[in-house]
Task: structure prediction
Amino acid sequence: MKTMMVTGTALAALLAPMLSGAPALAQRGPMGPVTHDAYVAMQKQRFDMMDADHDGVVTKEELTAQLTARMGEAPPAERVDALFKTMDTDGDGKATAAEVAASAESRFAAMDTNHDGTLSEDEFRAGMAQMGMGGRRR
Ligand SMILES: [Ca+2]
Ligand SMILES: [Ca+2]
Result:
């Protein structure tokens, strides 16, 4: 839980400057509406965080390490596999920044269920939950 809060704070810090033109949105907090640009920036930041050795490529090992750090426990291998597959679109075992950016685009499109170019809190949560990345646990 503590980890989620840290992530949320980092996210808020990241989003705040981008939302400065829309104070009403910023006040809704880190889980508020996420614009397309903010989402893409978030995914890029996430990629940089995952790319522990900064070689521009995220491996399954790096993804596992990142998820373990975030969740406080090692994630199930099949969850890592499923998530990694969404990142490594050509299946060569390496997720490049370009692949992750492209998959972020399609994920955004998939989550933006009412197609208004912004992820509402509900859309965002539903999308994260679907990926098994949400803060909610059963
Ligand atoms: Ca790497
Ligand atoms: Ca790849």
Notes: The chain has seven helices and four strands. Confidence is low (pLDDT under 50) at residues 15-28.
